[in-house]
């Protein structure tokens, strides 16, 4: 079995990889000469590009994106149970139970949550790998550049950028320039036997599986809505509520911002703010009218092309 060329590919996105148990053969992942130095307590990037087979990857049903509406903040990949479970003879602390991998385009970081099927010990340890990659043109491999292939040892205590808690591990915002790019379309997680220092670290693979298909998490405006908590309702009469809207997202401009009041037996006129730049605020007066028998509560809703925030108010 031949590996694809080991050339780092300029890629990037935010992926959350939720992993189910699917085995990969030891030869079907990382090339023997693409070995990082022996693992330490803290996570580190690999020294070379890596690859994992797509033969056991589950295709993710992705959500279509509207071009030009909002920029992508993250991308999420999920693997599903396919094929057979990992080798039963492998001890549980060296087998994957679940993993999530998140690449943040805004921060330029890679994060991951990995859970093994048992608590690792000094004698039942493993090298854990999480990676973001690109499917090769022939569709047979998920190839990850060295910058987005991160590894560590399962057993140990907390370390800079890594939390360990029994069988669970959390990689915290591993910073990498490639994570700011939006080109990844696959990911994988693996566990490997730890080899003696100076030898090939990729001899025996314990467990691993690949994710095919990514869903975008869009970078939408996030509104702060400030208004009176209690409003004296004037039944059958139009009245105004003063509302202050702030776009808390420091990166994205909110277009066509509209404000209205919603509630049972509540009628409202739409107040148009228009464009609201990152971090900026606007005040507006919203007209509403309540009918007899209203429930005493309502919501002020701010909407910008589907990006919504609201605040509950009490009508006295």
Which labels suit this protein?
single chain, 316 residues, mainly beta, Immunoglobulin-like, 2 domains, eight-stranded mixed sheet, seven-stranded mixed sheet, disordered N terminus
Overview of the molecule:
With 316 residues, the chain is mostly beta strands. It folds into 2 domains: 17-218, no CATH class; 223-315, Immunoglobulin-like. The protein has no helices and 24 strands. The protein has strands at residues 17-18, 44-45, 50-53, 58-59, 72-78, 96-104, 109-116, 127-135, 141-144, 149-153, 162-165, 168-175, 186-192, 205-212, 215-218, 223-226, 230-231, 239-247, 254-262, 266-268, 271-276, 281-290, 297-304, 307-315. The strands form 4 sheets. Strands 2, 3, 4, 8, 9, 10, 13 and 14 form an 8-stranded mixed β-sheet that branches. Strands 1, 5, 6, 7, 11, 12 and 15 form a 7-stranded mixed β-sheet that branches. β6 and β7 form a beta hairpin. The N and C termini lie far apart (74 Å). The relative contact order is 0.19. The model is unreliable at 1-39 and 80-85 (pLDDT under 50).
Radius of gyration over alpha carbons?
Answer: 25 Å
Please report the distance between the alpha carbons of the first and last residues: 74 Å
Q: What oligomeric arrangement do these chains adopt? A: single chain
What is the overall pLDDT average?
A: 80
In the predicted model, the low-confidence regions spanning at least 5 consecutive residues are: 1-39, 80-85
SS strand fraction:
over 45%
Number of strands: 24
Number of domains: 2
For the report, how would you describe the main beta sheet?
Answer: 8 strands, mixed
Order of helices and strands: EEEEEEEEEEEEEEEEEEEEEEEE
The count of helical stretches stands at 0
Q: Assign a percent range to the helix content.
A: under 10%
* Structural category: mainly beta
User: What is the overall shape?
Assistant: elongated
């Amino acid at each position: 079995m031949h590996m694809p060329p080991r050339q780092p590919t300029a890629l990037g996105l935010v992926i959350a990889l939720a992993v189910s148990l699917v085995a990969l053969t030891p030869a079907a992942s990382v090339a023997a000469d693409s070995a990082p130095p022996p693992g330490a307590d803290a996570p580190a990037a690999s020294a070379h590009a890596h690859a994992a087979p797509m033969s056991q990857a589950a295709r993710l049903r992705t959500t279509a994106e509207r071009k030009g509406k909002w920029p992508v903040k993250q991308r999420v990949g999920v693997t599903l149970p396919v094929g057979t479970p990992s080798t039963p003879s492998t001890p549980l602390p060296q087998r994957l139970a679940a993993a999530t991998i998140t690449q943040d385009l805004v921060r330029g970081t890679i994060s991951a949550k990995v859970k093994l099927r048992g608590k690792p010990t000094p004698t039942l340890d493993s090298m854990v790998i999480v990676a973001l990659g690109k499917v090769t043109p022939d569709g047979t491999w998920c190839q990850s550049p060295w910058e987005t292939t991160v590894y560590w040892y399962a057993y140990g205590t907390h370390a800079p950028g890594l939390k360990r808690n029994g069988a669970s591990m959390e990689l915290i915002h591993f910073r990498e320039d490639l994570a700011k790019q939006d080109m990844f379309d696959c990911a994988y997680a693996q566990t490997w036997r730890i080899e003696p220092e100076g030898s090939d670290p990729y001899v025996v693979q314990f467990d691993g599986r690949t994710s095919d298909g990514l869903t975008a998490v869009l970078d939408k405006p996030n509104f702060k809505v400030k208004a009176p908590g209690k409003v004296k309702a004037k039944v059958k009469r139009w009245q105004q509520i003063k509302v202050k809207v702030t776009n808390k997202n420091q990166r994205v401009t909110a277009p066509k911002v509209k404000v209205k009041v919603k509630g049972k037996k509540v009628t409202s006129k739409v107040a148009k703010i228009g464009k609201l730049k990152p971090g900026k605020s606007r005040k507006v007066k919203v007209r509403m009218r309540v009918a007899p028998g209203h429930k005493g509560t309502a919501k002020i809703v701010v909407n910008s092309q589907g990006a919504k925030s609201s605040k509950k108010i009490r009508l006295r």
